[in-house]
Each structure stands twice: as C-alpha cells, then as structure tokens.
Amino acid sequence: MTVTVRIKRLAHGADLPLPAYETDGAAGLDLRAAIATPMILAPGGRALVPTGLVFELPGGHEGQVRPRSGLAAKHGVTVLNTPGTIDSDYRGEVKVILINLGAEPFAIESGSRIAQLVVAPVTRAMLVEADALSDSARGEGGFGSTGR
Ligand SMILES: O=c1ccn([C@H]2C[C@H](O)[C@@H](COP(=O)(O)OP(=O)(O)OP(=O)(O)O)O2)c(=O)[nH]1
Ligand SMILES: [Mg+2]
Description:
Elements: E1 6-9, E2 29-32, E3 39-41, E4 46-50, E5 53-56, E6 61-66, H1 69-75, E7 77-79, E8 84-86, E9 95-100, E10 106-108, E11 113-121
Antiparallel strand pairs: 1-5, 2-11, 3-10, 4-9, 6-8, 6-11, 7-9
Deoxyuridine-5'-triphosphate (DUT) binds next to strand 8 and strand 9.
C-alpha cells in the first residue's frame, strides 16, 4: 500500500538527501542526523537528534520511529522510546531519541542514518464505558500467567 506524504526539509537539513527506502521491500524510510557538528554519545548517554524534516502524514496514519538493527547489534545504539510516535497533525521537526547502551562512545556524523520511519495506519478507538465487560478464557490472567 502506498500513501502520499508531504515532507519539508528544514534549512539545517537542506543538503541531506530525502529519506528513502533502501530496497524495494523496505518497510522503513531511513532517517539521517541533520547536525552542524558531530555528536558523541557516551556509553549510557542519550541525545535528541534532529532530522531536519517535517512530515505531513495523511489522516489515519502515524509515523513510527524505529531503531536500525545494525546500530543496535554492532554498537548497542537504539531508539529510547521505540517506537516513537509521529502524529499526523504534528508539524514540528522529527527528532530521534537515541541511547547508547553499548560500552564505547558512539559518534553521529551529519547525514548518518540513525533510525527509520515506518508509516502505518492507525485505528482510533471510540470508547464506550460499561459496568461489566464480556467474559473470556484469559480473564484477568496476564504477565506470564500461561507459563513459560
Ligand atoms: O521519537 C519521537 C516521538 C515524538 N516526536 C514528535 C512527534 C509527535 O507527534 C510529538 C509528540 O510525541 P509524543 O506524543 O510521543 O510525546 P509527548 O511527550 O506525549 O508530547 P505531547 O504532549 O506533545 O504529545 O513529538 C518526535 O519527533 N520523535
Ligand atoms: Mg503525546
């Protein structure tokens, strides 16, 4: 499924390529760091990394900011709030909250692909308050109630 997404590049990201799907079947658009000078993420450190991008997602859709598995596997660098939620009515710059869970400092250069954005449909709930809810086989069991 394809939807049209309007996108604006901010001045500090104007020289970077638009996010792109790296392969025909890729689910995520890689997001790049739009930074004037390299950032160093110390072990255990986190940073709000600008992308220089503003999206206009179509109604009924969200953007999910997800980690790149390569950064996680090789460096322990991931998205702290994964999946970050980009609302369709958000018109601010998309930023990525990265955290370094690895043992070494991690350098982020301008243009580094730091995360990926998956555009996904959203189902919104119409809440109906009720005094009693239907029975189910699971009932109140959770948090490991079915065993290992
Ligand atoms: O990783 C993220 C997550 C969110 N956002 C932007 C887009 C999103 O639409 C907005 C609000 O995100 P969220 O609802 O997760 O944050 P909040 O702490 O609840 O802030 P708000 O009170 O603005 O909703 O912040 C990002 O740029 N990156
Ligand atoms: Mg919110």
